[in-house]
Amino acid sequence: MRGGTVTIAPLRHEDAARCAEIEHEVFPGDDPWSEQAFRAELDNGNYYVGAYVDGELVGYAGLGVTDFESSVHTIAVVADRQGDGIGRALLRTLLAEADRRGLPVFLEVRTDNARAISLYLAHGFEHLGLRRRYYQPSGADAYTMGRPANRD
Length: 152
Hints:
Elements: E1 6-10, H1 16-26, H2 35-43, E2 47-53, E3 56-65, E4 70-77, H3 86-101, E5 105-110, H4 114-122, E6 126-131, E7 142-147
Parallel strand pairs: 4-5
Antiparallel strand pairs: 1-2, 2-3, 3-4, 5-7, 6-7
Helix pairs in contact: 1-2
C-alpha cells in the first residue's frame, strides 16, 4: 500500500471536474462521464462518496437508490492507487448504505474485468445475466450481478 491516509467521505460538487478526469483515465475505451453528469447524479439525490488521500480525490463510487432497490452506478480509482484496497473500501461504503436502507443492490460489470468481478463475488453478489454490447462505444459485454437486501 502506498503512503497517505485514505478517507471516504461524501462526494462534493467541487469534485465533479476531478471525477471526470479520473473517468477519462480509467474508462478510456467507453463513454466516460462528464463533469455535468457527476453534478446531475449529486443533484438527483444519489449516494456518492469519494476516496481522498491527504485531501486529494483518488477515487469515487456512486449508488443510485429508489424505494425498492439500489444500483452501483460507478466505482473508479486512479491507476496508481489500484490494488491499495480503495475500491474495496468504496464498495463497502455503498453496501453499508444499501444495507442501512434495506435495499438489494444490482450492478453491471465488464465481463473482462476479473478484478472487479472477484471483488463483487467476495461481497455477496451473484451473476444474474449477460448484457451483450452493453458498454459503448467499445461494444464490451457486461454481466448483471445482484446482492440481496440485508434486512438484519
